[in-house]
Amino acid sequence: MRKITIRIDDITEDMDWEKFHRFEALLEKYGICPLIGVIPANQDQSLIAGEKKEDYVDWLKEKQKRGWVIAMHGFDHIYTTKKGGIFPLNHFSEFAGLDFATQVKKLREGVRAMHEMNLRTEIFMAPAHSFDRNTVKALKMCGFRYITDGFGNGPYERGGMIYLPIAIQKSKEFGKKDGITTFVVHTATMREEDFRSYEKMFEKYQDQFVSYGEMLKRSAVPRNLFMSIWEYSLAVMKNFLCGVRAAGR
User: Fold this and answer.
1) What are the angstrom distances between the C-alpha of 208 and each of 2, 36, 177, 201?
2) Terminus-to-terminus CA distance in the chain, angstroms?
3) Is residue 178 scored above 50 in pLDDT?
4) How far apart are CA 9 and CA 25, in angstroms?
5) N or C: which end of the chain has fewer CB within 10 A?
6) 3-247 falls under which CATH superfamily?
7) What whole-number distance in Å separates Cα of residue 178 and Cα of residue 154?
8) pLDDT tens-digit readout, 155-168
9) What's the angle, vertex CA 54, arms to CA 49 and CA 60, rounded to 5?
10) Distance between CA atoms of 179 and 54, rounded to whole angstroms?
11) CA 194 → CA 111, 186, 197, 198, distances in Å?
12) Mean pLDDT across the stretch 178-207?
């Protein structure tokens, strides 16, 4: 039976805590420990929703102790290029299109900021899902082992990095018989119907939703060229369809 994990993007000390805590309560109700993407030095004004959480660092460390998994979500979350990279779900990026030295510098500054909070992680979460070959090369140089992105039935290895897949289409994951994937959540943009939808899913499919630690226990399989082309094509198509839907609203 397909297992499903949860990933929450855009974690900052001054995010919309009201919405986040509402979703957090759902996760706790159903015993799900997610992956959370911490932005080390956020400069994205669209993510700032209020006062800074005074015990933010202690809160992060407590969550990590309780089984939540932390990823480094870029560095400052500012989109600097219009590149989609090797996983083009979007055509804007904090990293893709920048030279190797610049990417290394940003990643090292991010790691330094995480260390100042006494946080350690080997998982990278690219803002907008966009990164390129220079990003992968820089990540390996900076000590990262995993990227939370890609499509597939479970973790896979390509170019010396392990990819932890996300869902192509949420509604179709419940009918699959095996493997493991991740639902991507942005709590700040959730509407009332989104909260209701997730609660219904958690209730109905309790046997399929698992903590993110289960993803990290799975062995990574090699990814060949054919599967890489398949993944790239799906990302391009998903980007196109999202654009069509947005234009029709």
Assistant:
1) 6, 19, 10, 10
2) 36
3) yes
4) 17
5) C
6) Glycoside hydrolase/deacetylase (3.20.20.370)
7) 9
8) 999 999 999 999 99
9) 90
10) 39
11) 33, 10, 5, 6
12) 97
pLDDT tier at 248, thresholds 50, 70, 90: very low
Of 166, 124, 119, 159, nearest to 144 by C-alpha is 124
- Tracing tokens 């990540």 back to the chain, one arrives at 139
Could you tell me which of 76, 10, 15, 9 has the C-alpha nearest to residue 43?
76
Residue 109 CA to residue 11 CA, distance in Å, equals: 17
Residue 247 pLDDT exceeds 50: no
Q: Please, are residues 86 and 234 in contact by the beta-carbon 8 Å criterion? A: no
Domain extent listing, the chain: 3-247
Q: How many residues does the chain have?
A: 249
Distance CA 95, CA 82 (A): 10
Can you tell me the mean pLDDT for 125-139?
98
Look up residue 191 and give its DSSP letter.
-
pLDDT surpassing 70 at residue 113: yes
Token output for 42: 């956020």
Rounded to 5 degrees, what are φ and ψ at 106?
Answer: -65, -45
CA distances to 111, 165, 208, 217, 249 from 106, in Å: 9, 24, 37, 29, 36
At residue 244 the predicted structure's pLDDT band, cuts being 50, 70 and 90, is very low
Instruction: Give, for 139, the enclosing helix (H) or strand (E).
Output: helix 133-141
Express each pLDDT in 12-32 by its tens digit: 999 999 999 999 999 999 999
User: Which residues are bridge partners to 163 per DSSP?
Assistant: 147, 156
Token pair, residue 13, equals 């000390």
Place of tokens 């090369």: 137
